[in-house]
Amino acid sequence: MIDVFDVLLGVAVLLGAAAALYGSRRIVGVMSFLVLGLLLTVLWARLGAPDIAIAEAAIASGVTGAFLLAAATDHPETSHEEGNVGRRTLMVLEAAIGVSAVTLVGVAAVSAARIAPADPLEVQASAAVADAVVDHPITAVLLDFRAYDTLLEIAVLAAAVVAALALLCDSRLTRVAWVTETRPVVLGFVRLIAPVVVMLAGWLLVAGSTRPGGAFQAGAMLTGVFLLLYLSGRARSMVTGKWLVPAALIGLAVFVAAGVGTFAAGREWLDVADGWGGVVVLLIEAALTVSIGAGLAALFIAGNPERA
Amino acid sequence: MANLLPVVVLLPLVGAILTSLTTHLGPRRLTPLISTVTTALVLAAGCAVAFQVGSSGPLMLVLGGWETPVAIALMSDGFSAAMLLMTAGVGLVVCVFASATPEITGGYWFWPLWLFLLAGLNAVYVSADLFNTYVALELLTVAAVALVALGGRAALLPALRYLLIAVLGSLLFLLGVALVYAETGTLATFGAAEETTGGLVLLVALGVMTLGLAIKVALFPLHSWLPPAHAGAPAAVSPLMSALVIKAAFFVLARMWINLSQGSAPTELAYVLGAVGSVAALWGAALALRQSKLKRVVAYSTVAQVGYFFLLFPLVIAGDGAASALAWEGALVFLFAHGLAKAAMFMAAGSFAHAHGTDELEQLRGAAARMPVASMSMAIAGVSLAGLPPTLAFVGKWQLLHASIESGQWWWIPVLLIGGLLTFAYTARVLRILLDTEDADDQQAKVEQGKFTTVRTDYHPIPQRMQYPALLLAVLTIVLGLRSIDLTELLQAGAAMGGL
Known about the structure:
The complex is a heterodimer.
Chain A: H1 4-22, H2 26-46, H3 50-74, H4 85-114, H5 121-129, H6 137-145, H7 147-169, H8 184-207, H9 215-231, H10 237-240, H11 244-264, H12 277-302
Helix pairs in contact in A: 1-2, 2-3, 3-9, 6-7, 7-11, 7-12, 8-9, 9-12, 11-12
Chain B: H1 7-25, H2 30-56, E1 59-62, E2 73-76, H3 78-98, H4 110-126, H5 130-149, H6 153-184, H7 189-195, H8 199-217, H9 226-232, H10 238-260, H11 267-290, H12 294-309, H13 312-317, H14 321-356, H15 367-370, H16 372-386, H17 392-406, H18 412-435, H19 438-448, H20 468-482, H21 484-492, H22 495-498
Antiparallel strand pairs in B: 1-2
């Protein structure tokens, strides 16, 4: 069912990726990356994967785009001399190695797909969704079947926030540069839009159990709100305040507590099924949303320390 | 008893949450205490797991009330139990060392980050799922990079380089996982091992995984990130990095090779790994001999020792039955011994650097007279690394030599012998400088003649707590060398699942 639009979309994605990689100026690269993210979102939607489309828009394109924009605009570009012979040889060599590696992996991937077993994990997981505590397959995989993976991923985020704080406080980058925004239009816009986005994040969170959505997408939306507040000179307590660590760790804490609680209640570790399962999952997801929102925003803001 | 497996991962996470809160909101003085107590509890859980594995074979636990392959399983065999013991044991000793003064930890955030690291390491050792292994490696990497960066402004660049390289390694591993999943349709490590048919897919999957993990283990020629990162880290972090962090990546590498490729392992690739490992062993030792700073000597020594670990692959994969089992045991005993000895060496080096304000070898001339305990630890750890009897590394090396003869791969023997000599050479060089009392005697004479009023002004005494932990681990390498039979028995307990 490939029509012209899909072909054009595929070509546009490749062109966008090439422009992002090989753009002559950094800002061009970043802009191409943002366009690429948008195209990918459409592509995922066309492939019937709205979950990934929302996540792509919020996390990959939104948050990562903000990071890249900040990096591209904060630091002046250094000019580098144009290629001599050695550099060019190296580039050809790199290209050759890259092309052969990609070819080899591609051939392996194709032959792997050909000998895929008749009853892959996907089929078994789909069959198990009927017994899971939530109806949506992706939420079921994330918080029921493979909850332990999600728990460790949240631990990664918590560790990253702690790492950023450690570098800010004890490695002596104690302060963060604050933006001061006085333009009334911007302030008014933030005041209007922030509650709307918070509400949308809440809806995405609750929707996650039955349709595309969930903690990761809602958390990324929340990050957007925090960044808006930061960029308009508010939310000063984001990095220096005492609420940051509790907010960034509450998701991990609730998750671990739920995992231990199921064992204490006489079931398997992280077995949230039966009775209260749906409520527990929603509780975990709500805590995760706060942690993801606060954590990602803190990482973004901690990346702008005041330079001595 | 299998129910203890999640404890070794969840307990450090609880500790990490608590210590993050005490560090951020206070009281800060509780942070080292909570962290040390948590590590001690994890060690106790590790001991219980090891005891159980040793007495009744591998443990297996499926999480979440589902069955594999839909759910994630945790597993501990002899190899994993031994690594759990070493991790928590070395960790506890380093905690005692680190609690001496905040200066050697790079600040109080060291403590929550160490617990995140411990959770990541243990998660790698008990994982029986390919994707879960990747996530555990990520947790480990984030914590490890942050710990290196605690070394201050000079450590920021090495830490950033380490981050980029480690993430590249993770992505390559993930690519391999994707290929294995595409072929077998399962993520369970042992399930996938039964399903693979070998051939091109397995070769490429194993190849990219090996490349990714070899980057993380710092195998020559992918090692250049390691010396600045390990030497630039705070004194309490370097022992963790060298003794524990690279072991996790090697653990995964060994597990992938032994399990995924039962019977159908690409032997040529195994020989290549052995050859590269041999070059690493000699090149790393040669560079260690040329360093002018003590911590860099120890860091290059790690590059050299990593080379020996890779002799595991040709000897186990290309060897037959008995030789293969000998090599497996030998390499793992050697891995264990390296963990203890390298932690002892880095702690001793850290205390020298802290006492003298520098780790320039020239500035440390005659330091043995001032710090006999740390010098003794350095000497014993060096002897252990070189593999002289009666240390634990000797047992491992002896078995590797034996396996080389058994399997007819005699060409690894000179590598093992020359490598040992070179290890002894750089240890002896360091010790000669530390023991060189000529300078001190000279000064003493001048003091007596009234020409100098003080002996050294740049040296300040350090707490006992910074010297004895290193000695403890160094002595342990000898004690365990005499009791190595217990360790090999524990390692054999995993034989049922290890495929050997």
